[in-house]
Design goal:
single chain; alpha/beta; 5-stranded parallel beta sheet; two-stranded parallel ribbon
Length: 266
């Protein structure tokens, strides 16, 4: 059981990182289920969480819009805003749809201030847009980009339609370094307001990374986390909490436990 000092330490991390206070009780239950090495690792990981809840999306959207426009060559006279989608037709709304909607007004304003026209597209690109593709910037956006596979699908679809790589920019509030590496060979731009590295394997504050990975593996086995999600989807080792928790985040933080229903909502 966490003692008073540990509870105060946990409360301080929640406040400093902006973690949702309604998750405290489930987090305490998660901590109490672990041995001492597991608890120390959880403290270390929580201290490095990137948190961007929905009430921050409008501000983040404005910042991302400005950063993406600033990254464009001056010869591109129009901006097309699109959500990051993999499968078409999409079976349900994705986070990229929400982010594109949140960003639309601020991006229209930022584009106009730079002397550029603005339009939106969703699952398909019209012949009218393609006729001007050489002078158009295509913005693919999402709140979080983890492994980069979905973004890669979206980029490939644009490339297959004849859009040049130099005309495509992938943007997100939070993105993993692995996603940036996956997209780099395509030649597109990436603009992430926050870029995350792997939470254990690349963590500067964890000296014995092999031991830390072993501790995490022990926790995941005790919690009966399925192998495909261990260390996060695609072994991402992410420490991110958006309006929902990405499955790239270490699953101990969102998997349903014996006495809690998942600390962060998926």
């Amino acid at each position: 059981m966490l003692d008073v000092e540990a509870l105060e330490r946990l409360a301080k991390i929640f406040k400093e990182r902006g973690l949702p206070m309604d998750a405290v009780d489930d987090m305490v239950a998660l901590f109490n289920y672990q041995d001492s090495p597991g608890q120390e690792l959880l403290f270390e990981l929580l201290s490095n969480f990137e948190v961007c809840e929905f009430d921050q999306y409008k501000v983040k959207g404005r910042a991302l819009a400005q950063a993406m426009v600033d990254a464009q060559p001056p010869e591109f006279s129009k901006v097309i805003l699109m959500p990051v989608l993999d499968k078409l037709p999409a079976s349900k709304s994705k986070s990229g749809d929400a982010v594109a909607w949140v960003m639309s007004r601020s991006l229209k304003s930022v584009a106009a201030a730079s002397g550029r026209a603005f339009d939106m597209a969703s699952q398909t690109i019209s012949a009218e847009i393609m006729a001007c593709a050489s002078g158009t910037s295509f913005f693919l956006v999402d709140d979080y980009i983890g492994s980069g596979k979905t973004a890669h699908f979206a980029v490939s679809r644009l490339l297959d339609q004849g859009v040049a790589a130099e005309n495509i920019t992938v943007g997100a509030f939070v993105g993993m370094g692995a996603a940036e590496e996956l997209l780099a060979p395509t030649g597109v731009r990436t603009v992430f307001l926050s870029k995350l590295l792997k939470g254990i394997s690349d963590a500067p504050g964890i000296v014995d990374k092999k031991s830390a990975l072993n501790v995490m593996g022990h926790m995941e086995r005790r919690m009966k986390i399925r192998s495909r999600y261990r260390l996060g989807y695609e072994r991402s080792e992410a420490l991110a909490l958006m309006c929902f928790c990405p499955n790239n985040t270490f699953p101990v933080f969102w998997w349903k436990g014996p006495t809690w229903t998942g600390v962060f909502e998926r």
